[in-house]
Specification:
The complex is a heterodimer of chains A (about 475) and B (about 375). Helices cover about 40% and strands about 15% of the residues of chain A. Chain A is built from 19 helices and 17 strands. In chain A, β1 and β2 form a beta hairpin. With about 375 residues, chain B is of the alpha/beta class. Chain B has two domains: about 1-225, Queuine tRNA-ribosyltransferase-like (TIM Barrel, Alpha-Beta Barrel); about 235-375, no CATH class. Helices cover about 40% and strands about 10% of the residues of chain B. A seven-stranded parallel beta sheet of chain B has the order 1-2-5-6-7-8-9. A two-stranded antiparallel sheet of chain B has the order 3-4. In chain B, strands 10-11 form a two-stranded antiparallel ribbon. In chain B, β8 (about 205), α7 (about 210-220) and β9 form a beta-alpha-beta unit. Classes of the chains: A alpha/beta (about 475), B alpha/beta (about 375). At the A-B interface, α13, α14 and α19 of A face α1, α11, α12 and α13 of B.
Chain lengths: ~475, ~375
């Protein structure tokens, strides 16, 4: 079903065509852009957020729910899926799409991130990385060739190069230097190993830590390899946020205009807003679903920590502007005891809402870009998250890099305040106090409208019937 | 997911979960009914019961109960509740049917303890009903009285007679079962109690669950069951797979000895829902005569739905292999999908039971189940 994307007449906007990917910028607003990306399984509208289903399941949600939530691409993870159930089995089951019953786009990460998340179980050298399985202790050597071979078997629309990832908080400059050059050497091994370039798109990943010089070396080396798209890696690992926005800004500026740019590991709503301002197109993170499992709901003003006794008798929906299934049916007071007791039902419901929130935010970003009002959207979004001032320095700097002037009327811009918030890893405005600001919670903001805004869909999933798609698949094969 | 289960008629809620978190005031304060707070659609009959089979703790009630309060198991552990407190939670839920608070003792308690439980339960029924009479939320609701008495037939008889004599009781719960009594003891208890209850009143049996137990209870005149069994089956990673019409299938098998394969990648190893490959599957730990164990490696590459022919959400969308993987990877979606399937399957089972009663063929239906089980047990050498 993955025919080559149609050729189109040259347009004044940047774009590119690869055998399995067609990318077309629809509108630019400053450095921000909205684009259409055609993948073998789905035509996506960017900027977009991609929920993470590490082991073939976005935790707590069914694939039908992800379809209901208008998700366009979901992630799987090479290392974890090879570990369990094994790529060979997935291939026997008709590939990852068929195995998990997901008709739209998929992206698999290469296993590089596990060099950070499972560093204590990893041994990295020029050949590849040897992991000790966190489940049964078995050793697995993941080389660039093996990672690509596994990803070819899994069959995602976008596959990621194996990169040498160093935790962004590491203080070892020599290690960053080595990793940067190694990532460039490994991309050639990945390209050589890639056996399905007409069905799957290999994205290279820019490394280089927080060092401008190394990032520049990485950018030049990888851009020369001319992959269908690029990711910016090695971020979202606890580095200081000013360095983070500088690196994103440098990388988006250095990557080709006509190709998709994917910032890996980004899921805090404000990060998505700022990175989009800097010209990034794609994001993924476990944040919306993981924080949901801790009883935390995302709202335009920040987050609601639902275990807090303040919600015992709060009969409002999580987010009055949302309108998702959870917000239509349930109240904060209903969710509070479930979250406080740690019941799985709470995790499912809050995950559903948090994905709905993140998808709706992506839609709002796209519309604001297309309607050429992204700077004012960013100003409103930031003001909403910091109603009493104290906008962090990194947000101000990110906006400056994007050419967006923030409206900093509020007195006492506290750099320290913002930095502290970023450092402890919480979402902006995480200290949002329920009841304290009744007015801000009911205030209408950017045109919320429907959660739609996603362009044409393909095939049977247009009707939203996963069962129909499944039957069609089985009929074919 | 509930909306995919179109055959649901009633939902049972555990009143005890609404004593502390959330408190009854939270439901009462909600603009709208308790039912709307819980997002439980008006098309369901809400039945508020006094025992959650999911967290019921054996003999938990024995510990601290007095004449004034029951000892119950809630999320945080053991807790005391008076009839007045209990009724506050009932009123907040505004159910269609509520079960009066009773002194819930297990079958094997001492005879004097069982007698005390009968006395207390009768007293608490009156107390609950007088509270209910003053509660406008409960004006249209029906009260069910709980029949206690452990394994002692005399106490069971005495309790049934006392409860049946209480005016205003709409139905009865055969309580305290599923706590260690033998099958023949349970049969006797149900028989003795049902005899003493008004013929026209509905009878609810709690905490009993396997298909065979259900059929036996139905044969003895039970009308309603809670679904605690399904939670246990789901938590264990099982999908119910017993045929809804075992008699018809038996005939079919006589004509066609090998069950038709559905083109699985591993047809030689994968067990069918029934029939001659049962023994192979049992050897893999893959199934028994009513359910399949999705943890078993037998399903690792099985592309079939949980139960071929089932039209529940899980079977329409996912394979056994995927469910096996979700369990192995400890993904919580496994339980969501299994619960949908198991609930759907039991709802279809009860549909089939009702149809056979209406057609006057229930005895044959019941017999077909028992014969199938016997056949499988003999055949598999279990």
């Amino acid at each position: 079903m993955a025919g080559p994307p149609p050729m189109v007449a040259p347009s004044p906007q940047p774009g590119s065509s690869s055998p399995a990917l067609h990318f077309e910028v629809l509108a630019q607003c400053g450095r921000a852009r909205a684009a259409r990306m055609t993948l073998p399984h789905h035509t996506c509208e960017t900027p977009m957020f991609m929920p993470v289903g590490t082991q073939g399941s976005v935790k707590g949600l069914t694939s039908q729910q992800l379809l209901d939530l208008q998700c366009q691409v979901i992630l799987g993870n090479t290392y974890h899926l090879e570990n369990r159930p094994g790529a060979e089995l997935v291939a026997d089951m008709g590939g990852l799409h068929s195995f998990i019953n997901w008709p739209r786009g998929m992206l698999t990460d290469s296993g590089g991130f596990q060099m950070v998340s499972l560093l204590h179980l990893a041994d990295i050298n020029e050949e590849g990385v040897t992991f000790q399985s966190p489940t049964d202790g078995k050793r697995m050597l993941l080389t660039p060739e093996h990672s690509i071979q596994v990803q070819n078997r899994l069959g995602a629309d976008i596959i990621m190069a194996l990169d040498d990832v160093v935790p962004s908080t590491a203080a070892d400059n020599a290690r960053f230097e080595e990793a940067t050059h190694r990532t460039t050497r490994w991309i050639d091994r990945c390209i050589a190993a890639h056996s399905r370039p007409h069905e799957q798109n290999l994205f290279a990943i820019v490394q280089g830590g927080l060092d401008e010089r190394l990032r520049d070396i990485s950018l030049k080396g990888l851009v020369a390899r001319n992959t269908p798209g690029y990711a910016i890696g090695g971020l979202a690992g606890g580095e200081d946020k000013r360095s983070f926005v500088r690196v994103v800004s440098q990388c988006t500026a250095g990557l080709p205009e006509g190709k998709p740019r994917y910032v890996m590991g980004i899921g805090y709503p404000l990060d998505i807003v700022i990175c989009s301002a800097l010209g990034a197109d794609m994001y993924d993170s476990v944040y919306p679903t993981r924080t949901a499992r801790f009883g935390v709901a995302l709202v335009p003003q920040g987050v609601l920590k639902l275990k807090n006794a303040a919600y015992v008798q709060d009969y409002r929906p999580l987010d009055e502007e949302c309108g998702c299934m959870v917000c239509r049916r349930y109240t904060r007071a209903f969710l509070h005891p479930l979250a406080a007791k740690g019941l799985p039902f709470a995790a499912s419901l809050i995950s559903y809402h948090n994905i709905a929130y993140t998808m709706r935010l992506s839609g709002q970003i796209r519309r604001a870009i297309i309607e050429q009002r992204y700077p004012s959207f960013v100003r409103e979004y930031v003001a909403q998250q910091y109603p009493r001032g104290g906008v962090p320095d990194w947000v101000i700097e990110g906006c400056q890099l994007a050419g967006i002037e923030l409206d900093l009327r509020a007195a006492g811009q506290g750099a320290a305040n913002g930095a502290a918030k970023a450092a402890d890893g919480t979402a902006p405005a995480a200290e949002h106090v329920p009841h304290a600001e009744e007015d801000t919670c009911s205030r209408a903001t950017a045109p919320a409208a429907s959660s739609g805004g996603i362009g044409k869909e393909a095939g049977a999933c247009e009707s939203g019937s996963l069962a129909a798609w499944r039957q069609e698949q089985q009929g074919h094969g | 997911m509930l909306e995919t289960l179109t055959d649901v008629q009633a939902l049972s809620l555990d009143v005890l979960q609404f004593l502390t978190q959330p408190k009854p005031e939270v439901l009462r304060g909600f603009p709208g009914s308790g039912r709307r707070f819980l997002a439980m659609d008006g098309r369901f009959v809400l039945v508020a019961t006094a025992r959650d089979p999911g967290i019921y703790e054996y003999a938990g009630a024995m510990r601290q109960a007095t004449n004034n309060h029951a000892s119950v198991t809630v999320h945080t552990g053991s807790s005391n509740v008076t009839p007045a407190q209990y009724m506050q939670a009932v009123a907040a839920l505004a159910p269609d049917v509520w079960v009066a608070l009773s002194d819930d003792v297990p079958s094997d308690c001492r005879p004097d303890r069982a007698a005390k439980a009968v006395d207390r339960s009768a007293a608490w029924l009156s107390e609950c009903m007088s509270v209910a009479a003053a509660a406008p939320e409960l004006s249209g609701a029906a009260v069910f009285a709980a029949v206690q008495g452990g394994q002692y037939l005399r106490e069971r008889q005495r309790c049934a007679e006392t409860m049946a004599a209480q005016p205003g009781v709409a139905g009865f719960v055969l309580a305290g079962l599923g706590t260690g009594e033998s099958p023949s003891q349970r049969r006797q208890i149900v028989e003795q109690v049902v005899q003493r209850l008004p013929a026209a009143a509905p009878r609810l049996l709690c905490s009993v669950g396997t298909p065979e137990e259900m059929l036996e209870a139905v044969a003895q005149g039970i009308d309603m069951f809670d679904m605690g069994y399904l939670a246990g089956v789901t938590a264990g990673g099982y999908a119910l797979s017993f045929p809804l019409d075992p008699g018809a299938q038996q005939q079919q098998q006589q004509q066609q000895p090998m069950p038709a394969s559905s083109g699985s990648a591993s047809t030689d190893k994968a067990p069918a829902a029934d029939g001659s490959s049962d023994a192979d599957a049992a050897a893999d730990g893959g199934q028994d005569c009513s359910k399949i164990n999705l943890w078993a490696v037998a399903y690792r590459t099985d592309k079939r739905p949980l139960l071929p022919g089932c039209n529940c959400f899980a079977c329409a969308n996912h394979t056994r292999a995927y469910l096996h993987h979700l369990l192995q990877a400890h993904e919580m979606t496994a339980q969501v999908l299994l619960e949908v399937h198991n609930t759907h399957h039991y709802l279809q089972f009860f549909k089939a039971i009702r149809a056979s009663i209406a057609a006057g063929t229930f005895a044959a239906y019941h017999e077909g189940f028992l014969q199938r089980r016997q056949r499988l047990l003999m055949g598999a050498g279990w």
